[in-house]
Amino acid sequence: MITPAFELTQDPDFLTIIIKVPYARASEFDVYFEGEDFKFYAKPYFLRQLTLPGRTVEDGREKAFYNTDEGTFTIWLPKEVPGQYFEGLDMLTSLLAPKKSRSAKPLVEEIAASAELSEEEEEEEFDWEIEQTPFEESSESVPPLQHPYGFGNLRSGVFQRLQDELSDVIDVKDPDQTPADERRRRRLEAEAAKFEPDHYLADFFEDEAIQHVLKYKPWWVDAHKKMTASQRESHQEHDTHTFVVFSEDEREQLRKFTNKSYLLDKRSRHHVYLGLIDLLLAYCYEICVTEGDKNVESSWNIRKLSATLCWLESFTCIHDVLVSFGRRVLCYPLHRHFGLVTRAFSDTVMILQLGKAAVLKCLLDIHKIFRESDPAYILNDLFITDYCIWIQKIKSKKLAALSESLQKTTLTKSHMGLELEELEAAAVLVQEEENALKAAGTVSKQQLLPSESETSDSEESSSTSSSETEGSDSDERESSTSEDGEINSFQGTLEEERTAPLIDCNGLRQGTNTSALGVSEEPAEVSLQSASLPGKLIEELEMQIHSAMRLSEQPEGLATASCLSQEQEGNPVPEPDRFSEDTAGRGSFLEVSSKPSPLLFLCSTNED
């Protein structure tokens, strides 16, 4: 036989049961209900036992309808007390439990003790603080071999068998041999060593991405808005189908759970409730930072942020839960911002106020995340599956009282024990100093820059000075050009005289035409501007001339007599030729020019 999928809804007068039986024989089906019992059969589907949360009555108003297209039976059962509210219609695992096994009582127990415990559990008011007892040193020096952990500390010895598989899931080493106090001490040391001030300050000052994810609104925010103030303050279970809707996959998972009963003493129940807060805080952080789009890191985030899962921690008060979660948010994930801690805090309060249906939906999502993660599936067996079954059986007023206690608890940065406020104050001072230095540098640059008028005046003066400079430079260039021209012309003349062939003075005596030899009969004046030539150049020229030419004395009588006779006759003294002929035949010479000249050039006589 196949257990069919089903769901329950209600209105003030009727309890509605919708059963999905595709390909069933509609002509053959049986329905039985009486009081809190309901049974259904349509081959091959059989709903053997459904224990209703309230009583129904058979008074002729009951009816059923079969939808052949969808393959569903819809059955309306009249309530025995019209207007009565049936709690826990979404807790399918609890509804499928046989009526005799719904109690958490063991098969064999002392009746009086059981009655007292049940009455105490119903009427006691949770203060969510575990009673502290002074430490008493045990007479036995040998510690117990195994220390419990898991849901309600009901498991032990699991990690001895699965040490290799669980080494990547939890941080505590050898948990079976590590007591709870030692786990807590190691956890605090690991968190202090993992905290990075640079990472925290980077997220503190550059929080654009964090502010963006803080604006995300998960499904429980809208559901919480739909609840009225009176509904939130009351301790009665509301119509969860209105605020919380389970998907078909979630319903299927609820049907797969095996119904269990848990024998928990007062201390264990406190551990379970506080562990539930720790799980919801980690889950709310993950949904916020991923904006509901879970990824491959979701499993790591949830188990790393929950000390209950990662260190098998057993908390003693709500404040310790919040401090542990806050420290781990600031040490491990990618986004380490205190605003994410407070956001997860407020989201957890909303979920608890929505009731156990909302809590169950979150636990089912965590179960799915761990189920799809290879190493983390072990945590479902240790914690999450038991939480999903247990939450369906608790009273709604317990969650309401838990949400009130959580809402009254305060959490500040100073509680983290990581000197966050000191770090932020120091970082703000450094930032202010940097801004002051930048501002001072900007002001000094502006002071160094001239005003517009000063700039224009300086431009005019610079243009005037540049024009004057250009004029003086042009004059200097012209003067230097003229001087260079004179020097170059004189050097050219000297070069021509040096390279010209020597004149045969004997040829001149024999009547050789000087013009044919390229020598002018006019006296050629060679005037050396000694003032314009460097002294070194003159000395080199003199040495070259002395080496190539010979100086000879002019006969005193010739020049003197010729000049006197001409002066006596009244004729002007002619300019003597540079080259003149000696009638005595002693050779040719250059006559001294009347113009001042530092040198006298003579040609050497060619001897036959």
From TrEMBL:
InterPro entries documented for this protein: CS_dom, HSP20-like_chaperone, Shq1, SHQ1-like_CS, Shq1_C
Q: What residue spans carry the region label Disordered?
A: 441-508, 553-591
- Enumerate composition-biased segments (Acidic residues): 470-486
Specify residue ranges for compositional bias: Basic and acidic residues. 575-584
Segments forming domain CS? 1-90
UniProt GO molecular function: unfolded protein binding
GO cellular-component terms in the record? Answer: cytosol; nucleoplasm
Q: Does the keyword Plastid apply?
A: no
Arranged from A to Z, the UniProt key words for this protein are: Cytoplasm, Nucleus
Principal place where this protein is found?
A: cytoplasm
GO process terms (BP): box H/ACA snoRNP assembly
Q: What SUPFAM superfamilies does the entry give? A: HSP20-like chaperones
Protein family membership: Belongs to the SHQ1 family.
Its name, as the record gives it, is Protein SHQ1 homolog
List the lineage, top down: Eukaryota, Metazoa, Chordata, Craniata, Vertebrata
- What's the name of its gene? Shq1
